[in-house]
Queue: 4 jobs
Job 1
Amino acid sequence: MPINTHTKILATIGPSTATPEMIEKLVLSGVDAFRFNFSHGTHAEHAERLKIVRDMSEKYGRHLTVVADLQGPKLRIGTFKTDKVMLEKGQKFTLDMLDENGDETRVQLPHKEIFDALKVGDKLLLNDGNIELEVLKNDNYVAETLVKVGGCLSAHKGVNLPNVKLPISAITQKDKKDLEFALNLGVDWVCLSFVQSVEDVRMARNLIGDKAWIISKLEKPSAIDELEDVVKESDGIMVARGDLGVECPIQTVPVLQKRIVKTCRKYGRPVIVATQMLESMIVNPTPTRAEVSDVANAVFDGADAVMLSAETAAGSYPAEAVAMMHQIINEVEEDASYYSRVQLDKDLSDCDDMADAITYAASEMSNILPNMAGLITYSASGFTTLSMARERPARPILAITLSTEVARRLGIVWGVRAFANPEVFNDITKLQDTALAIARQAKIGKEGEYLVITAGYPIGVRGMTNLIYAAQL
C-alpha cells in the first residue's frame, strides 16, 4: 500500500466511489484523506460512507482523515422560458427580484444582498465566468447591465462578483444543519466555503469549537486581501482554484497559489491545492501532460496535499486517477533537488519561542547528521507536529499523539504518519521506548540508526515542547 510519499492525497467521495470496494481501492492506490462534499448527497449517504472509511482505517492500521466540505452560499440566477438564451455582446440585460421566468432581456437574481452591494461599473460573471456583465444602473431591486462578453445562458447558473464584498455569511442555514450533523459524525476537518474575511473564520470557530479543525477555502479576492490574518486564524487552507480563477484574473492564479502556499508554510498551516488537477481523467484513463506538470508544480511548491474532485467523485477512472497522482508525487519527491526546494530559508533568528527553536534544531539534526532514520514528535494537540512539518525535513516524521482524533487530523499534513498512544503521556520515562517501538512498527530505519525525538515537560501540556534528544534503534 503506497504510504511512502510526504505529499498527501485528498480524494472526494461521490457516486463513482461510494462502495466499500471502491473506497478500499482508493486507499490501496494512495489516498490519505477523504472529502465529503455536502453540496451533494444526503446525510444518510455521508454517514454510510464515513463508516466505510473508518472501517478501512481499522483494517489497514491507518488514521485516514475525513474532511466535511460545507456548501456555503450559492449565488445563482433564476429560470428561463426556454432551455437557454443567447446574450449578445453590447446588448443590455436586466437582473431583478421578480419571481418570473426570464428571456433574452432579463432574468431573476434572487439575492437581495447582491443588489445592496452592487455599484455602477461593477462586473458580474455568470456561468463560471463565461459571460461578463457590467452594471449600468442599480436601484437595489433591479440592475441594468451591459453584456461585455456574451454567450449561451441557462437556468440556475452561478453568479460571481469579483472585488465585491457581499453582506452574506459564509455559513448558511443549510450549512449549520450540515455542520451539526458532520460534527456529530466525528469528522476531522471542516472545510469552510465563501470565506470573505477573517471574521468568517472566527464565526465558524465559535460554532465548531475544538470538535474539528477548520480549512478555509480561498476563492474570494477579499480573503486574499486579508491572507495572513485568514491563514493565522485557520487550522488549514485550501487553494480553491475553481472560483479563485473566476473571481480573479485567471492568469494570476498560479502566482496566487505560490503566495498562499508560502504564507501557509510561514505559519505552519497545512495547505491543499485543489481543482482540475487531473480533470481529463474524469473521462480518460490517462491525464494530459499539462495536468501532470500542474500536480508536480504543487508538490515542488511544498503543498501538504493535492486534491481530486470529480476525478474520484464522478469520474470513470477514480482508482487510476489516485494511482497516477501518487506516481507523480513519488517521482517529484525522488528528484535530487526536491528537498532543497521545499525547505524554508529559515535560521534561528526566525524562531518565535522554545517550541519553534526545538523543532528547527531537530529538523537540522535529521538533515545533516549521518545514520538518521527519522523524527519523532510527541504532541498532545498536534501543533508541535505541524511546526516540525513546516520545516520539511528530509526524514520521515512520526507523530505520537494523545488521541485518535488528533492523529486523524494530522493525516493531511506533509510527511507525517500519526500514532495515538495516550498511555505514554502519563509517564515520561516511556518516551524513548515508545518512540523506538513505533519506529519499528512503521518500518522506519535500521538497527544502529538514530531517531531525533522532541517532546515537552510537563508532558501533555500544549505548547511546552522543550526537549530534544537522539535515540538509537
Note: The two ends are 24 Å apart (CA to CA).
Job 2
Amino acid sequence: MISVIGGGSLATALVNILAQHSTVHWWMRDPNQAEHIRIHRQNPKYLPDLYIPENIFPTHEWDKILENTEVMFLVVPSAFLKSVLPDTLPQNILYVSGIKGLLYPENQTVSQYLTHKYHVPESQIVVFSGPSHAEEIAQHQLSYLHIAGTSTIHLQKIQKLLTQYYLKTTLTEDILGIEYLGAIKNIMALGMGIINGLGYGDNFKATFFTFIIKEIQQILQFLCPDTERNILDNVYLGDVLVTCYSQFSRNRMFGNMIGKGYSVKSAQLEMNMVAEGYYALQGIYSLLQSKKTEFSIVEMLYKIIYEFAPPRKTVQKWIETHL
C-alpha cells in the first residue's frame, strides 16, 4: 500500500498519479478536509478542480497509515513535518520525500532527520525534486523530476510510480545536494521577489540571478561537496529558475510583498500559504556561520527578513558592494 502525508497542492497532484498503481491512503492534518474529500472527491483547499479517484482514502488517523504502508510519500511543508509525524516510524518502510526545506532548529534535511530521529536506514530513503509546480503537474503540463537515493531497486520502483507521459524522471545519487538545493532555491526566490517588488527591471534581475547561481554553487560545495555535481543540470538550475520566476512561486510572491512594503507578518497573513524560503533562510544562515567566506545574498536576505532591515537600503548597499 502507498500512503501520502500532506494535504496541499503537491500531495493532491501526487495521489492522482499514485492511484494509477495502487490503493492510496492519504493523511492530512485537518479531519474536516479529509471528510470533505471522502464525500465530494475533491480537495476544497488545493487544486479543487481535480477529481480524487475512489481508490484514494483520505484520513486523519495514523493507525490506518502505518498498518500496511510499504511506500510513504512525505509532502508537507518542512516547518510542519516534525509536528505531524508520530513518535515512532517503522524502519522497513520506503520513505519518499518531496519536501524542499530544512527542519529547524536541527538544520537537517528530511533524509538526515529520518536517519537521526527514527533510525531509518539511508537505503530506505528516496527524495525527488526538480522544476515541478503542482499546478502544472495537475494540468499534465510537461515536467521533469530527479529521483535520488542509494538503492537502485528503490529508485527504479519510485521512478515507475511517478513517470507519466507528461512527467519525465531521471535517477541520481545526490540526495543531499538535491535536498539542500530545494531549501536554498526557495531562499533565492525570496530575493528575486524582493527585487521585483522594489521595482528593478529585467536587466538587473538577470544580473542578480547570475550572482544567485554562483552563490548556490558555493553553498552546495560547502555543505555537501561533490566534484561530479553539475549546477547546470535541470534539478539544480531548472528548479532555481522556475522558483525565482514562476507565477506559481510562493516564495517569489512572499518576497515581492516584502519589496512592496509589507511586513513579514502581514505578508504571511495575506498569502495564507507557506513560503518555505522563510523557514529555510534561518536554517541555511545558521549552517553557513562556520564559513568565513561571505555568502552575500543569504546575509542580505537574513537582514531583511529576520532583522527587519529596510529592503531598499539593504539591496542598494549590496549593489554598491558587489557591482
Note: The chain has a mean pLDDT of 94.
Job 3
Amino acid sequence: MIRLNEKLRGFIYKGLKWFLLGSAVGFLSGSAATLFLVLLDKATQIRIAHPTLIIGLPIAGFFVGYLYYRHGKDVAGGNNLILEEIHNPKNTIPFRMAPLVLLGTVMTHLFGGSAGREGTAVQMGASLADQLSKYFKLQAQDRRDLLILGLGSGFGAAVGAPWAGTVFGIEVIRSGHFKLPIFAKSLIASFVAYQTTHLFHAPHTVYPRLEAVQLSIQNLVIVLVSGLIFGLTARLFSELTHQIEKLETRFISFPPFKPFIAGIILVLLFNLEGSYRYVGLGIKVIQESFSELLSWKDPLFKILFTSLTVASGFKGGEFIPLVFIGSTLGSVLSQYVPLPKGLLTSVGFSSVFAAASNTPIACSLMAIELLGWNVGPYVLIGCFVAYFVSGHRGIYKNQPKRSKKIKIF
C-alpha cells in the first residue's frame, strides 16, 4: 500500500511538473510567434508599399550575415543545431538565438528575400524552451523532451495548426516513436501556444476550406502519381539548396559576403523576371493557386529564388516557400488530370514540405486543420508517397536518415 501511494504520488508529481512545463513552453512559443507574425506582417506591408526596398537586399544580407558572424556563430546552425542538441545534448541553446533569428527574418522579408517564417518560430520556441532547463533539475531525456515541445509548439503556433504542432516536434527528430508520455507533453505545449496566439490576436493566414470530393480509384491513382511528382520536387529543392551552400562555402571565406553576393544575384533575377511575384512569402499566390490555373514558372522560379536565399544565410526557413511550390505545382498539374484544382493544390500544399522535412503525419494533420476534413484521405496518400520517394536527405542536415525510404536515383 505504501509503495502504491509512493508510485501514485510520483506519477502525480511528474504529471503536474510536465503540465506546468508544457504550459510554460506553450506560452513562451505562442507569445514569441505572435510578436514575430505581427512584425513580419508589418515588414511585408512596408515592402509592398515601397517596392524599391528590394534594391537594399544585398545590404540587408550583409547586415544579417555580419550580425551572426560577430554575435551568433554558436547559433548559426538554426534548426540543425536544435536537432543536434536533441540527439546529443551538450549545452543549453543560447537565448540570443531567438532575437537574432527574429531580427534576421524580419530584415530578410522587409527587403524581399524569398524565405519562410515557420523555421524562425521553431527556433524561437526551442531556444526559449531550453532556457527553462536552467531553472529546473532536468535530466538529459527531460531536456530533449523540452526541446521537442519547443519545436512543435513553435511550428503549430506559427502555422495555426496545433495538432500538426503536437506531432511535428516528435516526427521531425524521429524520437519517442509517438509514445503516450511525449505525445501528451507535446499536446499541452502546442495547444497552449495556439491559444496564446489567439489571445494576442496573431495574424494567421486563412486558406479556403474545400468541399467534399468523391473517393474513387481514378482519383486515388492521380493523387498517388502526383505524390511521386511532389516528392521528387522536394528532393530537387533540398539538393539544390545543399549544393548552393557547398558552392558558396568553397568559394566565399568571409560569411557575411555569402548573403551579400546572393542578394545582388537575387535583385538582378527579380528585376529580370519583372513581376516580383516571388519575393517574400508569396501568401497571395498560394491563395490564388486554389482557384486559378497557374504557370509552370511559379514553382520553378520559387525553387530557384528560395534555394539561393536560404542557402546563403538569409533567415526565415523553408516552410511557406515549399507550400508555395507545392500549391502552385498542384494548380499546374490539375490542368492535365480530371481532378478538382483545389484538391490537387491541397495535396501539393502539404506534400512537398512533408517530403522535404520528413514529416508526413504532421503535414497531413496541418492540411486537415487548415483546409478541412474533406482533403484528409488525399493529403495522407500524397504526403506519404512524396515522403517515401524524396530521398534520404531533406532540408535538415542533422535529421536522422530514414532507412525505409525508396531509393529512386
Note: The longest helix spans residues 2-49.
Job 4
Amino acid sequence: MSEQYDVVIVGGGMVGLTLACSLGGSALRVAVLEAKPMATDWPEDSIGLRVSAITHASRKVFNSIGAWQGMVAQRITAYGEMHVWDAGGDGVIHFDSAEVGEPSLGYIVENRVIQSALLQRLTEFENIDVMAPACWQQWHDEQDHICIGLDGGGQLRSKLLVAADGASSPVRERAGIMTKGWGYDQHAVMAIIKTEQSHQHTCWQRFLAHGPLAFLPMHDHYSCVVWSTAPEQAAELVAMSDAQFMAQLGEAFEYKLGRVIEVHERGRFPLRLQHALDYAKQRIALVGDAAHAIHPLAGQGVNLGVLDAAALAETVLASHAMRRDIGLLQNLRRYERWRKGQNIAMMLSMDAFKRLFGSPLEPVKRARNRGLNAGHRLTPVKRLLMAYAMGDRSDLPKLASS
C-alpha cells in the first residue's frame, strides 16, 4: 500500500529541512527522508565541528519560517567585522558592519544547532512527516506521480521528489542529471580552537601560499578554523599532536589573537567546484549541494542552498495556488531559471578569488595586494562587497525579503 504525498524531500540536512519548513502549514503534504538518525541532544560542553557563516538573507528565511529563535536560544555568534590580509604582500582589507548601518555582517552557527532548530519547528506542522532513518531503494515514474520504494518495504507516491542529499546526491545520479566541475587539489582542515585573546566578534582570514586560513568567531574565546591547503599538508595537520597543531596554527595566523591554547576535534574534507547541468527534470528538483558545490573561502555554500529552498518553495506554492501540477517540468523551470544564474555567478566569483589568491606569480601577487588596499580605501567598493556578502541582492525569494 502506498502513502500519498505532494512533495518528498530526500535529505534531512539544513537545506532539506529549510525547504520542509518553508512548505509547513500549507495545503501540501510533505515527507522528509533522512538516511541517518537525527540527533538533537549532545553534551552541554561540546562544540560542533561543522559551522556555517549565515548571511542576513538566510537569517530572514529562518526567521520567516519560525526557526531563527530556536537557533538563538541554543547558540549563535554575530560578527560585526571581517579582517582579510595576504601573506604574499602588504594587502589588507577590513569590513565593519557600522559602515553600512547594520549591527552585524552575519552569524556563525553550528550546523547541528541549525538542524536542531529546524527539526523542532517541523514538529509544529501537521502537514510534514519526518522519516529517519529511512532510505529510498528505487523509484519509477507513473502518469501523474513518482512511486518511491523504501528500504525495508513500503512505498510513497509523490507529485515531486526533491534531492537535498548532498554533493554526491544518489537521487541526482539516479535521475541521470549530469554535473560539471573540477577538484581544487586542496583539502579543508576544520578544528575548534581557543585563543589567548578575544576574537573581537571578527572573522579573520589570511591568504597563504596553499590556500586561505580562516578563524570564524564562536562563543567566549573559541573559533572554528577552516584551513584550505594541499592534501599532503592537510593530512599532516590532522595527524599531528595537539601541541604541534596549535603551534603551527598560531604561526600561520601570525598570532593575531595570541597563542592557540586549546584544540578540540579536527577533520578534513576535499574541495571541489561542481554544478548540475539541470536543476529540474519531470517530477525532480535539486537544491543545495545536490545542485552546486563551491569553495568555502567566502562561506556561501549553505546560504545558496537556503535560498534554493526558499525559491523552490515559493515556486511550488505558486503552482499549487494556480491548480497546476507542481511536479511538471514546465512548472519547475521558473525555479531553475531563478536560481541557476545566481548560483553560477557566485561559483565563478569564488573560483576566480581562489585562483587569484593562489597564484605564485609575482605580477599577480602585486596586483591582488594593490586591489585589497584599494578596496580598503574606497568606501563605496567596500559597501558593495559587504552588501553582497550579507546576501543583500535583487530578486530574493519572499522569505528572504521580509
Note: The chain has a mean pLDDT of 91.
